[in-house]
Each structure stands twice: as structure tokens, then as C-alpha cells.
Design a protein that fits this description.
The complex is a heterodimer. Chain A is α/β, with parallel strands linked by helices. Chain A contains eight helices and eleven strands. Chain A has a single domain, classed as 3-Layer(aba) Sandwich (Rossmann fold). In chain A, a hairpin with a 2-residue loop joins strand 4 and strand 5. In chain A, helix 1 crosses helix 5 and helix 2 crosses helix 4. The radius of gyration of chain A is 17 Å and the shape is globular. The relative contact order of chain A is 0.19. The mean pLDDT of chain A is 91. Chain B has two domains: 30 residues; 96 residues, Immunoglobulin-like. In chain B, the strands form two sheets. Chain B has a four-stranded mixed β-sheet. In chain B, strands 2-3-8-7 form a four-stranded antiparallel β-sheet, with no helix packed on it. The chains are: A alpha/beta, B alpha+beta. At the A-B interface, helix 7 and helix 8 of A face loops of B.
């Protein structure tokens, strides 16, 4: 199936920091990545397509666009999606994506997302947790006061991407903000962007995102519903499970 | 000539009927509630050993005074009004927009819950309803 995933580029960007945001828990990654692309004035440099993606084509301001887009500005590339990556395609998608990162000599990969917590209703400011792929990545997170995920499972498309990164010795981090599981959570997206800004020295003003949070929640509800259908098949429940303690 | 006008009238009548039927079908693509400015909130429910917890996302609802929660027979009914009108586009062949003014959700309740002790709180745009389970059981003596 890997050969059925096509990456098209109109511009080749080398040695960039790659930021990924795919629809997942609370749509945190997708909201954060699209906001990052818009706020930093990124331009579209390509897209990813597959005959196994749902046959949909979003259009924005009258212009048809591919649902999975590659945006870039200077030395930062963001890849985000307006559709949930179908579960049977996740492994091939992850392989293709990590090969792409290697071919472009990416300086690092950062996956933005959410982690469901039952007490999200009580949290004004969600905590952001990190998962470092290499020991160096974990030290980097710790030295910047990002709490490391201790024991647990990661599920979904990021789990497959991290596996591929480990196999191919590619470093990177996953940043997950405490989030609602099945409501779009712009507050969690703002938290994850703040953590990203702190780690990589960007100055992203998240206030406009928080100001339009309620409107976004309504506008994104259909995408959230469709994402939940995918997540049900992506063993997301594992993220609420403790792994084997005796190793 | 009269026959021509009769055929012409029948063709027009048939076309009007087809158009009306098509419009009705497109109308039906939008849920009735949405056409009335009513939206079903995204809902998440889970169980603890002692409670059923239902959470409803109610963006744009300002305070608990704008929300009503009631039980009618064995159905929990939540309604919430939005003070500020909000328009958004709906994907359908006419791509028309809709003005949202109210949320409504009906949730059938299981039998083993204590409706007298339902508690609700509204925080950060989310309504949390906690429904205690009725404890039923008896102690079995071991011989």
C-alpha cells in the first residue's frame, strides 16, 4: 500500500523542522498545525494523496485544496490534514512520511496532539506532556521543563510514525496537551503551541486562537465526529491503559 | 393550438413537481433541528462504578441560566440557548448557511439510575451531568 501514497512537491525544502498535525484526540494537532501555518504565513509547497483516502476535496475561499497539505516558510515545514488518516493506511503513511523526512534531511520532527484526560473540564490551562524518541530528545524535553510521559501507550497515526522513526533512527518528539477526547479543543491546541514555541524559539501568539475557540468548536464538529469514527478503530482506548509493568 | 397549450401546461406542471421534489430531498439532507436553528451537542458518556457521567459540549452558551436539564419519563432532556446568533455554512448541494440559536439533546436513561440525585455543573462551555447508579444487591451467606 506504501506505493499508493504519493507526495507531490512544488518546492523542495531541505533541513527543515517538520511539524505534524493530524486529526486525533480533540483535533488538537490539526488545529495547532493549521494555526501555526497561518500565523507564520506559510505557503503551500505540496500535498500527500492516496487512492485509499476518503474521496473528498475541501475547498477554501473557492479554491480546491488537497486534504493533506505540506506548508513551509524558511526552515519550518508543517504537514497537516483535514481528514483523519484511515487506520488500514496508517503504517504505510508513516513509512512514506518518515522516508520523506530522511530524504529532506529534516532537522527534527515534532508531532502535535492531545491526550484525553477525564478532568479536562476543570483545567483552565492544560499541561503538555512530551515523548522523546531518542535519549537526546528526552533530555531536550526535560531541560525545557516538559513533563515526560512515563508509562502508557500511544495509539493512532503518531504511534506508527514514532515506530518508523525508531526503526530508521530518526529523532523527534511528540507533544500532547491534556484534552477532551471527542470535542474539538482549541484550548489544548493553544497549550501545545505554547510548548512548541518555548522549545523551538518561536513566538506564536495563541490569544486569537483562544478568542475564537467557541466558534471553532462548532465549525469543526463534523470533522470531530468523523475523526471519532476513525479513532474507534485505532485502538485509542489503549492510551487509557497501563502497559505491562514487569519487563 | 389549444392542444399545444395543454401539452405546454402539463410539461410546466411536471417540471414544477420535479423541482419541488428535488428541493424537498435537498432540504432533508439538513436535519430538521438544524433548519430550526437547533444543534445536537457533541456528547461523551462514561461510567464509573457508582455513576453514569454525561458531558455535553455547549460552545457559545454563556451561563448555567441558559441551560435546562430535565427528566421526562426515562429520558434526560438538555436544552441550552445561545444569546449571540451564530451562522455557519452547511455542506449540501445548495451550500446554504444556518443560524444557530439553541442546543437540544435527548438521552435515554438506563433503568438502574437514581434520577432524584442527578447533579449537573457547567464549566468552560461544557455541561457535566452525573447520574448515580441505584445500588441493588443482597448479601449471600456462604454455607
Amino acid at each position: 500500500m506504501e506505493e499508493k501514497i504519493e507526495i507531490h512537491e512544488t518546492k523542495r525544502v531541505e533541513e527543515a523542522l517538520m511539524v505534524l498535525g493530524f486529526p486525533d484526540t480533540g483535533l488538537v494537532g490539526a488545529i495547532a498545525a493549521t494555526y501555526l501555518a497561518e500565523k507564520t504565513g506559510m505557503i503551500e509547497i505540496g500535498f500527500i494523496d492516496s487512492p485509499y483516502f476518503p474521496p473528498v476535496l475541501p475547498f477554501h475561499k473557492h479554491e480546491p485544496r488537497f486534504p493533506v497539505r505540506i506548508m513551509a516558510k524558511d526552515n519550518i515545514v508543517t504537514i497537516f490534514s483535514e481528514i483523519a488518516i484511515p487506520v488500514p493506511l496508517m503504517t504505510s503513511f508513516a513509512k512514506k512520511l518518515v522516508d520523506y523526512l530522511i530524504e529532506r534531511n529534516s532537522s527534527g520532527v515534532i508531532m502535535l496532539g492531545g491526550i484525553a484526560v477525564p478532568n479536562r473540564i476543570d483545567l483552565q490551562k492544560p499541561t503538555v506532556y512530551g515523548l522523546g524518541i531518542t535519549a537526546k530528545d528526552r533530555d531536550f524535553l526535560k531541560s525545557n521543563d516538559i513533563k515526560l510521559l512515563d508509562e502508557g501507550f500511544l495509539a493512532g497515526v503518531y504511534a506508527q510514525i514514532v515506530k518508523e522513526c525508531i526503526k530508521k533512527k530518526v529523532g523527534g518528539v511528540v507533544l500532547l496537551a491534556e484534552s477532551y477526547v471527542n470535542y474539538p479543543d482549541p484550548g489544548a491546541a493553544a497549550a501545545v503551541l505554547e510548548a512548541f514555541s518555548k522549545l523551538y524559539g518561536y513566538d506564536i501568539d495563541t490569544q486569537p486562537l483562544l478568542d475564537q475557540a467557541e466558534e471553532l468548536k462548532i465549525k469543526l464538529r463534523e470533522l470531530m465526529k468523523r475523526t471519532m469514527e476513525t479513532l474507534r478503530h485505532a485502538q485509542k482506548g489503549y492510551e487509557q491503559t497501563l502497559p505491562l509493568l514487569y519487563r | 393550438m389549444e392542444e399545444f397549450f395543454e401539452i405546454y401546461r402539463r410539461i410546466r406542471e411536471e417540471m414544477r413537481r420535479i423541482i419541488e421534489e428535488a428541493e424537498r430531498e435537498f432540504e432533508e439532507l439538513i436535519p430538521y433541528e438544524l433548519r430550526e436553528g437547533m444543534l445536537e451537542p457533541l456528547t461523551h458518556a462514561y461510567e464509573t462504578p457508582s455513576e453514569l457521567v454525561i458531558m455535553l459540549d455547549l460552545p457559545l452558551v454563556r451561563s448555567k441560566d441558559d441551560i435546562s436539564v430535565r427528566v421526562d419519563e426515562d429520558t434526560l432532556i438538555v436544552e441550552a440557548s445561545i444569546q449571540r446568533k451564530f451562522s455557519f455554512d452547511i455542506e449540501n448541494p445548495f451550500f446554504r448557511s444556518c443560524t444557530l440559536s439553541k442546543y437540544r439533546k435527548e438521552i435515554p436513561l438506563p433503568e438502574n439510575v437514581d434520577i432524584e440525585s442527578i447533579r449537573a455543573r457547567f464549566r468552560n462551555g461544557v455541561l457535566e451531568i452525573r447520574i448515580p447508579k441505584r445500588r441493588r444487591g443482597l448479601r449471600i451467606e456462604i454455607e
